[in-house]
Amino acid sequence: MGGTIGEVRGRSKAEAYLNYAELIEDVSYIFYDHHPDSNYKKFCKKQMVQDPITGEWVLRYHLHT
């Protein structure tokens, strides 16, 4: 089993979530499991932190094969 970790960013929480949902859609044929689950928008938004330097919202993720 393999996987990858990373982060998505956005100027707002909504933009960061949409970037994450798009990423999951693009790689869902490779990575069958992902954390946080993109089906739970409120949970994803709670997991976001704001970068103090850029002001962007950051969501860290872990994808599993």
SSE blueprint and pairings:
Elements: E1 3-10, H1 13-27, E2 33-35, H2 41-47, E3 49-50, E4 57-64
Antiparallel strand pairs: 1-4, 2-4, 3-4
Q: What key phrases describe this protein's structure?
A:
four-stranded antiparallel β-sheet, alpha+beta, 65 residues, 4 strands, 2 helices
Number of E-state strands: 4
H and E order: EHEHEE
What proportion of the residues is helical, as a percent range?
A: 25-40%
Question: Which percent range describes the beta-strand content?
Answer: 25-35%
Silhouette:
globular
> Structural class of the helices, strands and pairings?
alpha+beta
Q: What distance separates the N and C termini?
A: 6 Å
Largest sheet: 4 strands, antiparallel
Mean pLDDT across all residues, rounded? Answer: 91
Cα Rg: 12 Å
Unreliable segments of 5+ consecutive residues: none
Number of helices: 2
Commentary on this structure:
Strands 1, 2, 3 and 4 form a 4-stranded antiparallel sheet that branches. The model has no long low-confidence stretch (mean pLDDT 91). By secondary structure, the protein is an alpha+beta fold. It starts with a strand and ends with a strand. β3 (49-50) and β4 (57-64) form a beta hairpin. It has 2 helices and 4 strands, in the order βαβαββ. It is globular and about 35 Å long. The longest helix has 15 residues, at 13-27.
